[in-house]
Amino acid sequence: MKRMNLRQMTLYSVILGIVAPAIFISYYLFIDRYNRELDQRVRTQMHSYVILLAKSSAVSLWNVDGPVAQQLVDAVMENPEVIRVVLKNENKAIFAQGEKPERRIGTILSAEQPVIFSGETIGSVSIEVTSDPMVRNILLDFQKLAIAIFLQLICSVALLLFIFERRLVRPLLALQANTALLADGILDQPLSWHREDELGRLASSLDQMRTKLAVLIAERDKLNMDLELRVEERTNTLNLANSELSQALEQLQLSQKELLRKEKLASLGAMVAGVAHELNTPLGICVTVISTLREKVDEINAEMAQGLKKSSMVAFLHDFEQSTDILARNVSRAAELVTRFKQVSIDRASSVRRPFLLRDVISEVLYVNSPEYQKKQHRIMVDVPDDILLESYPGELGQVLGNLVDNAMLHGFDQIVVGEIWIRARQLDAEWIELQVQDSGAGIPSESIDRIFDPFFTTKLGRGGSGLGLHIIYSIVSTVLGGEIHVASIVGVGSTFTLKLPRQAPLAQA
């Protein structure tokens, strides 16, 4: 919508300010005069006619003189406002009447009066009148008045517009042109104004503002130049600092990766040491049995040279049978331990995605780490169904499980001699499983529970904790296994780590 300019607004304001009140006053005067004329010229005369006719027609109605009564009616009908006159006798029959139906236009008024003769009602007379002649006269008068008002309005509007144009519109337009120069930034051209009224004072204020703006802009330009120099210096300093920070961050990431690798190797090294210690027992027994058998063979060979007795031979065979049985049990135990360790180490080293039973992986991890766990008096209980089949990364899952158990023994059972760890699993649906590791340890303080998965956060710094165990768990669960891990803990009661894992891990490099 196009906005009105100053001249148009002035014109509309003058017209509305003069014409609208004139129209309203004219309408009010017309209605007032119409009501007054209607009362004076129509209603009053109508009542006069009906009273006069009722008195004058009483004798003719009493004498049943119809022609005289009709003459009286016709005399009243000569009035232009009267359109119908009816004279009735006492039986309500029409005695005389007059009517002009062609003049039945405009507002119709009626009146009725009883005819009384010698104190007795002998009939009635009714008159109907129209306001049309009176309205035509009023309209004619108002036409003349409207023409006079219209001419007066034209003169008034023209005079006011002339005054507004000379005293307000033109000065405001000139002032607008000067302010446009200020808006364009032209501040060296003063505002020349020679009036002492409000517009003159406004122009003087604008000129003072122009002068102050020029000073402020000069100061601003100087400040901007200084600010640009300072920003450039700060930018160079920040760029240098960012470069140093980038190098430090890169070095930190490399250090973090190296620490993660060493943490994994340390876990694997501890498992190797435990397996080696566990292998010493069956292998030592085997060496002892073999040495004993060698002595028995030497003895039987010496007796054979002198003459072998049956009792010696029976005793040798009995000892040989027991020795081979001991050798078979211990070699089988060592072979099982090596096989399980080999599977665990292959899974952790190769990161191959393959199908496996969850309970088998848990059993292998616990069996391989059993030498370390047996050094403590804590109990580990497993409640995992035999039919939970996963297609995932068993090495990473075993590392997560081992780290959770180690974390419980290192932190949860710090001041506890005998503790319990429960490993539970259940199928949530066809796509997801839930794995829980719960301990009866000391619990995690509320101020630390939101930070336990952060790298290098530990409550045992310098006392066997590196702060990477749970961070490794979180990284493996969320990236490699494609699942989620949450923790809930109550101080003095224990902690529960809940893993929500997909039955099919995402196809990615572990």
Per DSSP, what share of the residues sits in E-state strands of 2 or more residues?
15-25%
Q: What is the residue-mean pLDDT, rounded to a whole number?
A: 76
How are the strands of the largest sheet arranged? Answer: 6-8-9-11-10
> Total helix count?
10
Q: Terminal Cα separation, in Å?
A: 66 Å
Main sheet specs: 5 strands, mixed
Range of helix content: 55-70%
Shape designation: elongated
Question: Please, could you describe this protein's structure?
Answer:
With 510 residues, the protein is α+β, with helices and mostly antiparallel strands. Among the domains are: 6-159, Beta-Lactamase (2-Layer Sandwich), CATH 3.30.450.20; 356-510, Histidine kinase-like ATPase, C-terminal domain (Heat Shock Protein 90). The protein contains 10 helices and 11 strands. It has helices spanning 6-56, 58-62, 66-77, 132-183, 198-306, 310-350, 358-368, 370-374, 394-412, 469-480; strands spanning 82-89, 94-99, 108-117, 120-130, 354-357, 379-383, 389-392, 420-427, 432-439, 484-490, 494-502. Strand 10 (484-490) and strand 11 form a beta hairpin. Helix 7 packs across helix 9 (394-412). It is elongated. 20% of the residues are buried.
What key attributes describe this structure?
510 residues, alpha+beta, Beta-Lactamase, Heat Shock Protein 90, 5-stranded mixed sheet, 4-stranded antiparallel sheet, 11 strands, elongated
